[in-house]
Protein backbone atom coordinates (compact mmCIF):
# COMPACT_ATOMS: atom_id res chain seq x y z
CA UNK A 1 0.00 0.00 0.00
CA UNK A 2 2.79 2.34 0.88
CA UNK A 3 4.48 1.53 -2.44
CA UNK A 4 1.33 2.56 -4.38
CA UNK A 5 1.14 5.85 -2.47
CA UNK A 6 4.81 6.44 -3.25
CA UNK A 7 4.15 6.00 -6.98
CA UNK A 8 1.15 8.35 -6.83
CA UNK A 9 3.15 11.07 -5.07
CA UNK A 10 6.07 10.66 -7.47
CA UNK A 11 3.74 11.02 -10.48
CA UNK A 12 2.14 14.17 -9.06
CA UNK A 13 5.55 15.63 -8.30
CA UNK A 14 6.78 15.01 -11.86
CA UNK A 15 3.63 16.59 -13.32
CA UNK A 16 4.05 19.72 -11.20
CA UNK A 17 7.71 20.09 -12.30
CA UNK A 18 6.80 20.07 -15.99
CA UNK A 19 4.64 23.15 -15.45
CA UNK A 20 7.54 25.19 -14.14
CA UNK A 21 9.39 27.40 -16.67
CA UNK A 22 12.85 26.17 -17.59
CA UNK A 23 15.91 28.24 -18.30
CA UNK A 24 17.17 28.33 -21.88
CA UNK A 25 20.79 28.13 -23.03
CA UNK A 26 20.93 31.91 -23.06
CA UNK A 27 20.10 32.04 -19.37
CA UNK A 28 16.67 33.57 -20.00
CA UNK A 29 13.27 32.29 -19.03
CA UNK A 30 10.93 31.25 -21.85
CA UNK A 31 8.83 34.30 -21.08
CA UNK A 32 11.81 36.46 -22.05
CA UNK A 33 12.23 34.72 -25.40
CA UNK A 34 8.51 35.18 -26.09
CA UNK A 35 9.28 38.92 -26.18
CA UNK A 36 10.63 38.30 -29.68
CA UNK A 37 7.15 38.35 -31.14
CA UNK A 38 8.18 38.90 -34.75
CA UNK A 39 11.63 37.33 -34.29
CA UNK A 40 13.01 40.37 -36.11
CA UNK A 41 15.80 42.78 -35.25
CA UNK A 42 17.28 45.79 -37.08
CA UNK A 43 21.01 46.48 -36.73
CA UNK A 44 23.93 48.48 -38.01
CA UNK A 45 27.68 48.02 -37.65
CA UNK A 46 30.08 50.92 -38.10
CA UNK A 47 33.38 52.48 -37.11
CA UNK A 48 31.96 55.81 -35.82
CA UNK A 49 35.53 57.07 -35.50
CA UNK A 50 34.70 59.67 -34.46
CA UNK A 51 30.89 59.90 -34.15
CA UNK A 52 29.28 63.03 -35.61
CA UNK A 53 25.88 64.53 -36.38
CA UNK A 54 25.66 62.67 -39.69
CA UNK A 55 25.57 59.36 -37.84
CA UNK A 56 22.30 60.44 -36.26
CA UNK A 57 20.62 59.90 -39.63
CA UNK A 58 21.88 56.32 -39.69
CA UNK A 59 20.75 55.58 -36.14
CA UNK A 60 17.29 57.01 -36.85
CA UNK A 61 17.02 54.81 -39.94
CA UNK A 62 17.90 51.69 -37.93
CA UNK A 63 15.25 52.58 -35.34
CA UNK A 64 12.65 53.04 -38.08
CA UNK A 65 13.43 49.59 -39.50
CA UNK A 66 13.10 48.14 -36.00
CA UNK A 67 9.34 48.61 -36.31
CA UNK A 68 6.78 49.08 -33.56
CA UNK A 69 8.56 46.62 -31.28
CA UNK A 70 11.57 48.94 -31.11
CA UNK A 71 13.90 45.99 -31.49
CA UNK A 72 17.09 47.49 -32.94
CA UNK A 73 20.76 47.63 -31.99
CA UNK A 74 23.82 49.72 -32.82
CA UNK A 75 27.20 47.96 -32.93
CA UNK A 76 30.34 50.15 -32.97
CA UNK A 77 33.43 48.33 -34.27
CA UNK A 78 36.17 47.28 -31.83
CA UNK A 79 39.30 48.09 -33.85
CA UNK A 80 41.72 50.84 -32.83
CA UNK A 81 44.86 52.32 -34.39
CA UNK A 82 46.62 55.68 -34.77
CA UNK A 83 45.26 56.36 -38.25
CA UNK A 84 41.61 55.76 -39.13
CA UNK A 85 40.50 54.39 -35.74
CA UNK A 86 41.89 56.64 -32.98
CA UNK A 87 39.06 56.02 -30.49
CA UNK A 88 38.75 52.78 -28.54
CA UNK A 89 35.43 50.95 -28.52
CA UNK A 90 34.73 52.10 -24.95
CA UNK A 91 35.45 55.72 -25.84
CA UNK A 92 33.15 55.56 -28.87
CA UNK A 93 30.31 54.07 -26.86
CA UNK A 94 30.70 56.68 -24.13
CA UNK A 95 30.65 59.60 -26.57
CA UNK A 96 27.85 58.11 -28.69
CA UNK A 97 25.55 57.51 -25.72
CA UNK A 98 26.06 61.12 -24.67
CA UNK A 99 25.63 62.42 -28.22
CA UNK A 100 22.59 60.33 -29.22
CA UNK A 101 20.65 60.03 -25.98
CA UNK A 102 17.54 58.75 -27.74
CA UNK A 103 19.49 55.67 -28.82
CA UNK A 104 21.73 55.31 -25.75
CA UNK A 105 20.36 51.99 -24.51
CA UNK A 106 20.59 50.48 -28.01
CA UNK A 107 24.31 51.16 -28.46
CA UNK A 108 26.14 47.90 -27.72
CA UNK A 109 29.51 47.42 -26.03
CA UNK A 110 30.50 43.78 -26.09
CA UNK A 111 34.09 42.65 -26.62
CA UNK A 112 32.80 39.46 -28.25
CA UNK A 113 31.27 41.42 -31.15
CA UNK A 114 34.44 42.05 -33.17
CA UNK A 115 32.88 41.61 -36.61
CA UNK A 116 29.55 41.21 -38.37
CA UNK A 117 29.70 37.39 -38.17
CA UNK A 118 30.07 37.49 -34.37
CA UNK A 119 27.02 39.73 -34.18
CA UNK A 120 24.84 37.67 -36.51
CA UNK A 121 25.77 34.44 -34.72
CA UNK A 122 24.71 35.91 -31.38
CA UNK A 123 21.44 37.24 -32.78
CA UNK A 124 20.66 33.82 -34.24
CA UNK A 125 21.45 32.12 -30.91
CA UNK A 126 19.04 34.52 -29.19
CA UNK A 127 16.24 33.22 -31.37
CA UNK A 128 15.96 35.90 -34.05
CA UNK A 129 14.85 34.62 -37.45
CA UNK A 130 14.83 37.83 -39.50
CA UNK A 131 17.48 40.57 -39.65
CA UNK A 132 17.43 43.96 -41.30
CA UNK A 133 20.85 45.60 -41.56
CA UNK A 134 21.08 49.31 -42.35
CA UNK A 135 24.26 50.51 -44.09
CA UNK A 136 25.50 53.40 -46.20
CA UNK A 137 23.95 53.61 -49.66
CA UNK A 138 27.23 52.58 -51.33
CA UNK A 139 27.56 49.48 -49.12
CA UNK A 140 24.19 47.82 -49.82
CA UNK A 141 25.28 45.44 -52.60
CA UNK A 142 28.47 44.50 -50.76
CA UNK A 143 26.63 43.48 -47.59
CA UNK A 144 23.88 41.69 -49.50
CA UNK A 145 26.53 39.46 -51.00
CA UNK A 146 28.54 39.00 -47.79
CA UNK A 147 25.76 38.30 -45.30
CA UNK A 148 23.71 36.02 -47.55
CA UNK A 149 26.79 34.12 -48.73
CA UNK A 150 27.41 32.83 -45.21
CA UNK A 151 23.76 32.41 -44.17
CA UNK A 152 23.46 28.73 -43.31
CA UNK A 153 27.19 28.54 -42.60
CA UNK A 154 27.98 30.84 -39.68
CA UNK A 155 24.31 31.51 -38.80
CA UNK A 156 20.91 30.55 -40.15
CA UNK A 157 18.20 33.20 -40.64
CA UNK A 158 14.99 32.90 -42.61
CA UNK A 159 15.75 36.30 -44.13
CA UNK A 160 18.49 38.93 -44.15
CA UNK A 161 17.60 42.28 -45.68
CA UNK A 162 20.11 45.05 -46.33
CA UNK A 163 18.67 48.56 -46.38
CA UNK A 164 20.22 51.90 -47.29
CA UNK A 165 20.40 54.65 -44.71
CA UNK A 166 19.93 57.07 -47.62
CA UNK A 167 22.16 58.32 -50.39
CA UNK A 168 24.65 61.02 -49.47
CA UNK A 169 24.33 64.21 -51.53
CA UNK A 170 27.86 65.63 -51.71
CA UNK A 171 26.60 68.79 -53.42
CA UNK A 172 23.91 69.41 -50.81
CA UNK A 173 23.67 72.76 -49.03
CA UNK A 174 22.95 70.89 -45.81
CA UNK A 175 26.25 70.75 -43.85
CA UNK A 176 25.17 67.48 -42.21
CA UNK A 177 25.15 65.79 -45.63
CA UNK A 178 28.79 66.72 -46.15
CA UNK A 179 30.06 65.40 -42.82
CA UNK A 180 32.44 62.46 -42.69
CA UNK A 181 34.64 60.88 -40.05
CA UNK A 182 37.62 61.56 -42.33
CA UNK A 183 36.94 65.30 -42.24
CA UNK A 184 36.43 65.20 -38.47
CA UNK A 185 39.82 63.51 -37.98
CA UNK A 186 41.39 66.12 -40.24
CA UNK A 187 39.85 68.92 -38.12
CA UNK A 188 41.18 67.29 -34.96
CA UNK A 189 44.65 66.85 -36.42
CA UNK A 190 44.63 70.51 -37.45
CA UNK A 191 43.47 71.69 -34.03
CA UNK A 192 40.38 73.29 -35.58
CA UNK A 193 37.81 72.94 -32.81
CA UNK A 194 35.31 75.33 -34.42
CA UNK A 195 35.01 73.14 -37.52
CA UNK A 196 35.05 70.01 -35.37
CA UNK A 197 32.23 71.34 -33.15
CA UNK A 198 30.21 72.26 -36.26
CA UNK A 199 29.98 68.50 -36.91
CA UNK A 200 28.20 67.84 -33.62
CA UNK A 201 24.41 67.41 -33.24
CA UNK A 202 22.44 70.53 -32.45
CA UNK A 203 22.63 71.44 -28.76
CA UNK A 204 25.78 69.42 -28.08
CA UNK A 205 28.00 71.33 -25.67
CA UNK A 206 31.41 72.67 -26.66
CA UNK A 207 32.79 71.11 -23.50
CA UNK A 208 31.84 67.64 -24.68
CA UNK A 209 32.96 68.23 -28.27
CA UNK A 210 36.30 69.47 -26.94
CA UNK A 211 36.66 66.29 -24.89
CA UNK A 212 35.85 64.18 -27.95
CA UNK A 213 38.36 66.06 -30.10
CA UNK A 214 41.08 65.62 -27.49
CA UNK A 215 40.40 61.87 -27.34
CA UNK A 216 40.63 61.70 -31.14
CA UNK A 217 43.85 63.73 -31.22
CA UNK A 218 45.42 61.64 -28.46
CA UNK A 219 44.50 58.43 -30.27
CA UNK A 220 46.05 59.74 -33.48
CA UNK A 221 49.37 60.53 -31.80
CA UNK A 222 51.79 57.60 -31.94
CA UNK A 223 54.30 57.26 -29.08
CA UNK A 224 57.78 58.65 -29.84
CA UNK A 225 60.20 56.23 -31.43
CA UNK A 226 63.05 55.47 -29.07
CA UNK A 227 66.50 56.06 -30.51
CA UNK A 228 69.98 56.62 -29.13
CA UNK A 229 69.92 60.29 -30.02
CA UNK A 230 66.39 61.46 -29.21
CA UNK A 231 62.77 60.48 -29.31
CA UNK A 232 61.14 61.18 -32.64
CA UNK A 233 57.39 61.49 -33.17
CA UNK A 234 56.11 60.40 -36.57
CA UNK A 235 53.95 63.15 -38.04
CA UNK A 236 51.13 61.55 -40.00
CA UNK A 237 50.03 62.94 -43.32
CA UNK A 238 46.47 63.30 -44.60
CA UNK A 239 46.48 60.13 -46.72
CA UNK A 240 47.30 58.02 -43.64
CA UNK A 241 44.44 59.08 -41.35
CA UNK A 242 41.93 60.27 -43.98
CA UNK A 243 42.71 58.44 -47.26
CA UNK A 244 39.42 59.52 -48.82
CA UNK A 245 40.56 63.15 -48.65
CA UNK A 246 43.87 62.44 -50.41
CA UNK A 247 43.20 59.30 -52.40
CA UNK A 248 45.86 60.01 -55.03
CA UNK A 249 48.67 60.00 -52.45
CA UNK A 250 47.13 56.96 -50.76
CA UNK A 251 47.01 55.01 -54.02
CA UNK A 252 50.53 56.08 -54.97
CA UNK A 253 51.86 54.55 -51.75
CA UNK A 254 49.91 51.39 -52.57
CA UNK A 255 51.27 51.19 -56.12
CA UNK A 256 54.81 51.68 -54.76
CA UNK A 257 54.17 48.65 -52.53
CA UNK A 258 54.57 50.62 -49.30
CA UNK A 259 51.27 49.40 -47.85
CA UNK A 260 49.00 46.34 -48.09
CA UNK A 261 51.70 43.86 -49.06
CA UNK A 262 50.83 40.24 -49.74
CA UNK A 263 50.74 38.49 -46.37
CA UNK A 264 49.91 41.63 -44.36
CA UNK A 265 47.10 41.34 -41.81
CA UNK A 266 44.18 43.66 -42.60
CA UNK A 267 40.71 44.41 -41.28
CA UNK A 268 37.71 45.22 -43.44
CA UNK A 269 36.43 48.53 -42.07
CA UNK A 270 32.79 47.89 -42.93
CA UNK A 271 32.43 44.40 -41.46
CA UNK A 272 35.29 43.99 -38.97
CA UNK A 273 36.45 40.81 -40.73
CA UNK A 274 40.20 40.15 -40.63
CA UNK A 275 42.57 38.18 -42.78
CA UNK A 276 45.88 38.12 -44.62
CA UNK A 277 46.23 39.63 -48.08
CA UNK A 278 46.66 36.97 -50.73
CA UNK A 279 46.24 39.15 -53.81
CA UNK A 280 46.70 42.81 -54.70
CA UNK A 281 44.52 44.25 -57.46
CA UNK A 282 44.72 47.68 -59.06
CA UNK A 283 42.31 49.23 -56.56
CA UNK A 284 41.38 46.31 -54.29
CA UNK A 285 42.84 43.50 -52.23
CA UNK A 286 41.67 39.95 -51.54
CA UNK A 287 42.27 38.72 -48.02
CA UNK A 288 41.99 35.22 -46.60
CA UNK A 289 40.35 34.70 -43.21
CA UNK A 290 41.51 32.08 -40.68
CA UNK A 291 38.85 29.60 -41.86
CA UNK A 292 40.24 29.73 -45.40
CA UNK A 293 37.45 31.80 -46.96
CA UNK A 294 38.41 34.83 -49.02
CA UNK A 295 36.91 38.28 -49.35
CA UNK A 296 37.52 41.14 -51.72
CA UNK A 297 37.60 44.76 -50.51
CA UNK A 298 38.34 48.17 -51.99
CA UNK A 299 41.60 49.74 -50.83
CA UNK A 300 39.94 52.62 -48.98
CA UNK A 301 37.78 50.16 -47.03
CA UNK A 302 40.57 48.18 -45.34
CA UNK A 303 43.13 48.99 -42.65
CA UNK A 304 46.37 47.26 -41.79
CA UNK A 305 46.10 45.72 -38.34
CA UNK A 306 48.54 46.84 -35.67
CA UNK A 307 49.70 45.00 -32.57
CA UNK A 308 48.70 47.17 -29.62
CA UNK A 309 50.81 47.36 -26.49
CA UNK A 310 49.36 46.21 -23.13
CA UNK A 311 49.16 49.71 -21.62
CA UNK A 312 48.97 52.10 -24.55
CA UNK A 313 48.75 52.33 -28.31
CA UNK A 314 52.44 51.67 -28.89
CA UNK A 315 52.72 49.06 -31.58
CA UNK A 316 54.58 47.84 -34.61
CA UNK A 317 52.70 47.29 -37.83
CA UNK A 318 52.50 43.69 -38.96
CA UNK A 319 54.23 43.80 -42.33
CA UNK A 320 54.83 40.77 -44.46
CA UNK A 321 57.77 39.99 -46.67
CA UNK A 322 57.53 41.54 -50.11
CA UNK A 323 55.95 38.71 -52.09
CA UNK A 324 53.76 40.82 -54.35
CA UNK A 325 55.57 39.62 -57.46
CA UNK A 326 55.02 36.00 -56.52
CA UNK A 327 51.36 34.98 -56.60
CA UNK A 328 51.99 31.23 -56.53
CA UNK A 329 50.28 31.09 -53.14
CA UNK A 330 47.11 32.41 -54.73
CA UNK A 331 45.49 29.23 -56.00
CA UNK A 332 41.96 27.93 -56.26
CA UNK A 333 40.39 26.61 -53.06
CA UNK A 334 37.10 25.25 -54.37
CA UNK A 335 38.29 21.70 -54.87
CA UNK A 336 38.11 22.02 -58.65
CA UNK A 337 41.79 21.29 -59.11
CA UNK A 338 42.35 24.60 -60.89
CA UNK A 339 45.48 26.51 -59.96
CA UNK A 340 44.34 29.95 -61.09
CA UNK A 341 42.29 32.88 -59.81
CA UNK A 342 40.99 36.14 -61.30
CA UNK A 343 43.65 38.84 -61.69
CA UNK A 344 46.61 36.51 -62.28
CA UNK A 345 48.43 35.58 -65.49
CA UNK A 346 47.53 31.93 -64.87
CA UNK A 347 43.84 32.90 -65.01
CA UNK A 348 44.31 34.75 -68.32
CA UNK A 349 46.12 31.79 -69.84
CA UNK A 350 43.47 29.34 -68.63
CA UNK A 351 40.59 31.38 -70.08
CA UNK A 352 42.39 31.88 -73.39
CA UNK A 353 43.15 28.15 -73.63
CA UNK A 354 39.46 27.36 -73.17
CA UNK A 355 38.41 29.81 -75.91
CA UNK A 356 38.35 28.22 -79.41
CA UNK A 357 40.55 30.07 -81.89
CA UNK A 358 42.01 32.30 -79.18
CA UNK A 359 45.76 32.84 -79.06
CA UNK A 360 47.45 32.57 -75.69
CA UNK A 361 49.27 35.84 -75.12
CA UNK A 362 49.32 38.83 -72.80
CA UNK A 363 46.75 41.59 -73.15
CA UNK A 364 49.59 44.08 -73.61
CA UNK A 365 50.40 42.29 -76.87
CA UNK A 366 46.82 42.74 -78.05
CA UNK A 367 46.99 46.46 -77.27
CA UNK A 368 50.28 46.76 -79.14
CA UNK A 369 48.80 45.11 -82.22
CA UNK A 370 45.72 47.35 -82.12
CA UNK A 371 47.90 50.46 -81.95
CA UNK A 372 49.97 49.25 -84.89
CA UNK A 373 46.81 48.61 -86.95
CA UNK A 374 45.45 52.08 -86.10
CA UNK A 375 48.76 53.71 -87.12
CA UNK A 376 48.83 51.86 -90.48
CA UNK A 377 45.35 53.03 -91.35
3D architecture notes:
This protein has 377 residues and is α/β, with parallel strands linked by helices. Among the domains are: 171 residues, 3-Layer(aba) Sandwich (Rossmann fold), CATH 3.40.50.620; 80 residues, SH3 type barrels (Roll), CATH 2.30.30. Helix content is 34%, strand content 14%. The chain is built from 13 helices and eleven strands. The protein has a five-stranded antiparallel sheet, with no helix packed on it. It has a four-stranded parallel sheet with strand order 2-1-3-4, with helices on both faces. A hairpin with a 3-residue loop joins β6 and β7. It is globular and about 70 Å long. 28% of the residues are buried. About 14% of the residues have low confidence.
Describe the protein's topology.
Elements: H1 2-18, H2 30-33, E1 40-46, H3 53-65, E2 72-76, H4 89-99, H5 116-125, E3 130-135, H6 140-149, E4 159-164, H7 181-189, H8 193-197, H9 206-219, H10 238-241, H11 247-255, E5 265-268, E6 274-280, E7 284-288, E8 294-298, E9 302-304, E10 306-308, E11 315-317, H12 345-354, H13 363-376
Parallel strand pairs: 1-2, 1-3, 3-4
Antiparallel strand pairs: 5-6, 5-9, 6-7, 7-8, 10-11
What is the compact description of this entry?
The protein is an alpha/beta fold and 377 residues long. The protein contains 13 helices and 11 strands.
* Strands side by side in the biggest sheet: 8-7-6-5-9
Shape: globular
The ordered H/E elements are: HHEHEHHEHEHHHHHEEEEEEEHH
The CATH topology of the domain at 37-167 and 179-218 is given as Rossmann fold
How many beta-strand segments? 11
Ends distance: 115 Å
| Main β sheet profile | 5 strands, antiparallel
Oligomer: single chain
Provide the low-confidence segments as ranges: 13-34, 307-336
Supply the number of helical segments: 13
Proportion of strand residues: 5-15%
Q: What is the assigned CATH homologous superfamily of the domain at 37-167 and 179-218?
A: HUPs
- Our Rg estimate from Cα atoms comes to 26 Å
The averaged pLDDT comes out at: 78
Please estimate the helix content: 25-40%
CATH architecture of the domain at 37-167 and 179-218: 3-Layer(aba) Sandwich
CATH classification class of the domain at 37-167 and 179-218: Alpha Beta
**Classification by helices and strands:** alpha/beta
Amino acid sequence: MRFIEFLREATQSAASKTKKPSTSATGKKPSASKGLEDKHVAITFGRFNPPHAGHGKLLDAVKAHGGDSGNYRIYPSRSQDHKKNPLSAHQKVEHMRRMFKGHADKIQNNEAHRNIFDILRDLHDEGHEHVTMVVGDDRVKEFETLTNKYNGVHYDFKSINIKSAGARADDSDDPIENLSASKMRAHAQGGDHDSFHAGMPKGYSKKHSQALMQDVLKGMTPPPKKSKKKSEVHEQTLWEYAPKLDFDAFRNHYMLDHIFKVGALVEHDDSGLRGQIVHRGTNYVIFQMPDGTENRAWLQHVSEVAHLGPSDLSHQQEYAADTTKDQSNYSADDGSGNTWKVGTDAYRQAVQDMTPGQETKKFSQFNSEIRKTATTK
